[in-house]
Amino acid sequence: MQIYHIPWINTPVRTVLAIWHQLTKTEIPELAKCSVLMRERGRVEETIHAMQRAGAGNLQVISDFDMTLTKFAHNGKRVPTTHNILDNRLLINEDCTKKIRALLNTYYPIEIDPSRSAEEKLPLMVEWWTKVHELLIEQRIRKDMLAQAVKESSAMLRDGYKVFFDHLAEQQIPLL
Questions:
Q1: H/E segment holding residue 33
Q2: How far is CA 104 from the centre of its chain?
Q3: Is the pLDDT score of 52 beyond 60?
């Protein structure tokens, strides 16, 4: 008769599960880059692992546009945001432009104020966007004119966007 030695036979289940988790965990090299900062690394890793376990069929990507999918600058020159593209005489009148600039002058200093918390800023940012969007709706911008303004703009998608979009499409992962 052989006796097998099982070192963790008297080890609490939580400890065994933690060890198992470490043994089966796959590293995410992108998270090790010096440009990636996160408050709770373990929570981020667990979220990513949960998404991996759930599979592509349970995933959707929700992204904003300006400076997430688009570049911030190109060849040292600032690339326009969505609202910069809309700030076009073909799309909005001078009165609307003045009102939007006044809102920018009021709210942008709040957005970049390091002494204010995110909780304090958030309702003010929503208020800003809502006011600007209401002004834009009043302009009754036609789709064909909007498409033309985007084509004529210098807005650029980030490098690698096509690979990203194609991969999402291949896996049938919706992008909003």
A1: none
A2: 22
A3: yes
Catalytic residues: 64, 66
What is d(CA 157, CA 66) in angstroms, rounded to the nearest whole number?
9
Mean pLDDT across 66-83: 88
Of 73, 75, 76, 103, whose CA–CA distance to 87 is shortest?
103
**pLDDT tens digits for 19-43?**
655 555 667 788 888 888 888 988 9
Per-residue DSSP letter, 176: -
Per-residue CA distances from 39 to 6, 36, 43, 45, 90 (Å): 37, 10, 9, 12, 44
Element (H, E) at 157: none
Residues in Cβ contact with 48 at an 8 Å cutoff, skipping those fewer than 6 apart: 28
Stated pTM of the model: 0.59
Whole-angstrom distance, CA of residue 56 vs CA of residue 51: 8
Alpha-carbon distance of 51 to 28, in angstroms, equals 13
Is the Cβ–Cβ distance between 52 and 164 less than 8 Å?
no
Distances (CA, A) of 91 to 40, 100, 120, 139: 44, 13, 33, 7
